Amino acid sequence: MTDKLAAAEALFEAGQLMEAQAAFWSQLRTNPRQPKAWSRLGEIALKLGQPAQAFDFFGNGYDFSPDDFDIRLGLGRSLASLGRDNEAITHFRKAALIDPNSKQAHLGLAMAMTAVNDVDGAIMAWRNYLSIDENDPAAMTALAELLMRKLRFDEAEHLLHFAALLDPENPLPLVMQGNVKLAHHDHAAAQALYLKALDIAPGHAPALFNLGNLAMTADDFEMAAGLFAMAHQQAPQDPRLANNLAIALKEQGLLDLAQDMLRQAIANQPDFAEAHWNLATIHFLQGRWKEGFEEAEWRWDMSNFTTPRRDFACPAWDGKPMPKGTLLVHAEQGLGDSFQFVRYVPKLASLAGRVVLEADPKQASLFARSFPSISIVERGQPLPQASAHAALLSLPHFLGAPLESGPYLTPDPTRVAGWKKRLAGLGPGPWVGIVWQGNPGYHADRRRSPGLAPLLPLLDISGIRLVSLQNGIGREQLLRLSEGPIDLGNEEDPDVGPGFEGTAALVAALDLIISADTAIAHLAGALGKPFWLLLPFIPDWRWRMEGSGSPWYPSATLFRQPKAGDWATPVSAIAERLRRLDV
Fold first, then answer.
1. Is 20 a domain residue?
2. Which run of H or E residues covers position 88?
3. Which of 563-569's residues contact partners 24+ apart within 8 Å by CB, and which partners?
């Protein structure tokens, strides 16, 4: 090293960056073939927040010494700072090969692999780094987060325990330990760890956020909203906090405030699909169908949507007429959704040369009878070649909503006649079908399904013959009673069967249906059968927040909870209507 280069190096080591920069430039003007000088200029540029310039400097040094450790490390750091992590990985990996004991090289590699979501590679890289610096709590926490993504919770918890011991003033390892407990369904232990994190750092947004989620799980939406609001104050730019606060507000009926928070979330992250979907549900509850179905198109970009996006060989339909084309319509979400929105399918006949509906096997034969001009294919069977495809719940976006219509499903007349004869043989009516339990897999089923017990007062009304339409889960509640609604059969009964043909015929033969928010309610509405619907305080989006009628089903009468958990009030109103035989 020349005296002048040594002097420049001394200035660099002393932190006199501008002076060092000038000295290194002076040397390079004399002789540009000095990789050490280029490397130092790159490091100075990084310190000054100039990663693009640093990359150029390290690149010049690389031309003269491609196996120089400092240059390889500098190229990795520069690229990582520029967001070009995939390229950075190559240089960090080479630097780690040149000097296997370099903490910087292994740390840079681990961070870059984490950034590109190479979870397995990042786990290995963090382990290599920790083999050199085994007492780095931040690295332990980063590795634990990756292990949790792989559901390796025990390994993660072990690391987080030591991270918390090494850095007792940091709340993050405690919060993540709480997340591990939550994954093991130990809510009490998770809550204790989140609270301990708040003791260390009052106002810690992640701890508040997770406590809010626990409160949501317990249906304590007022508490959840308070916790999310405190977290939002600490991190107002975090769209997740605004989104979850909106959900908690919506569940209290505070729709305008919820809408404001969702717009904040979307302003901070315009492609936040979950916030767009939640905004759609607010629009629906307020009866703004057009805006709701526009926002609802974001559902396909959600990470946890109930129906995953499907890939087809044909493009998605754009709503334009295709008189010589074949349009494939595919069902999505639940059976009730299909019953509600299949009304749109016949309207497509004037827009496409051929319309094919892929339907759940339980509904296929009923749909085929009801829509003879539509080709019905059971899900799981080969699909015909199509010009475009459309999801069933996207049709309102193109065709308008709500689409008012009278009965649009046609039950099997022979079965209907058979049921009427069977009922007549059991005695006079009126005959009222009753359903009390929806799909327990639905996240809000515990709030929307009353169960049989709250409906038992209806048994005491003289002159009314209650018939159970409950099949599958929920039917065991009937079997525990000594007296209850008449049980005409179950899924194995040939008059009912595993699909909806028998049920549709029975519904058509009855005088009235009383139901929780289930597929049977939608079936009744699609058949034009009068039905009385029991709704929770915050109903599903399609029922709006107010009113006793539905624009989707003219035959519906809605009985709403006045407050969360109060089934006695709507059941009492139904009982009074039944006593007056107001069917």
1. no
2. helix 85-98
3. 563/537, 564/219, 564/447, 564/536, 564/537, 564/538, 565/537, 566/537, 567/450, 567/454, 567/534, 568/454
Residues 430, 513 contacting (CB under 8 angstroms): no
3-state secondary structure of 546: coil
Q: How far apart are CA 214 and CA 338, in angstroms?
A: 33
- Walk across the sheet containing 531-535 and list its strands: 465-468, 431-435, 512-515, 531-535, 556-560
Task: Please give the pLDDT value at position 346.
Answer: 95
Average pLDDT, the chain: 93
User: Is omega for the bond preceding 411 within 30 degrees of 0, making it cis?
Assistant: no
| Residue 285 shares a structural domain with residue 426 | no
Q: Could you report the per-residue pLDDT of 521-570, keeping only the tens digit for each?
A: 999 999 999 999 999 999 999 999 999 999 999 999 999 999 999 999 99
Task: Give the pLDDT band (50/70/90) at residue 498.
Answer: low
Phi, psi of 553 (to 5 degrees): -130, 105
- At 468, give phi and psi (nearest 5°): -75, 130
* Cβ pair 367, 357 in contact under 8 A: yes
376/487 same-domain check? no
Residue scoring higher pLDDT (405 or 110): 110
- Cα separation, 409 vs 501, in Å, equals 11
Whole-angstrom distance, CA of residue 544 vs CA of residue 351: 30
| Rounded Cα–Cα distance for residues 550 and 414 (Å) | 30
Q: First vs last Cα of the chain: how many Å apart?
A: 100
User: What region, left, alpha or beta, does residue 28 occupy, with left being phi > 0 and alpha being psi -120 to 50 degrees?
Assistant: alpha
- What local confidence, expressed as pLDDT, does residue 583 receive? 52
The domain that contains 543 carries what CATH number?
Answer: 3.40.50.2000
- Same domain assignment for residues 329 and 272: no
Name the pairing type of β-strands 322-330 and 352-359.
parallel
pLDDT of 446 higher than 60: yes
The secondary structure of residue 279, as a DSSP letter, is: H
State the pLDDT at residue 497.
54
Q: What is the mean pLDDT of residues 337-356?
A: 96
Instruction: Give the C-alpha separation, 14 to 10, whole Å.
Output: 6
At 62-111, the pLDDT tens digits run 899 999 999 999 999 999 999 999 999 999 999 999 999 999 999 999 99
pLDDT band with cut points at 50, 70 and 90 for residue 490? low
The two structure tokens encoding residue 112: 């870059």
Q: How far apart are CA 256 and CA 247, in angstroms?
A: 12
CATH number of the CATH domain containing 274:
1.25.40.10
Coil, helix or strand at residue 435: strand
pLDDT of residue 34: 81
pLDDT at 402: 83
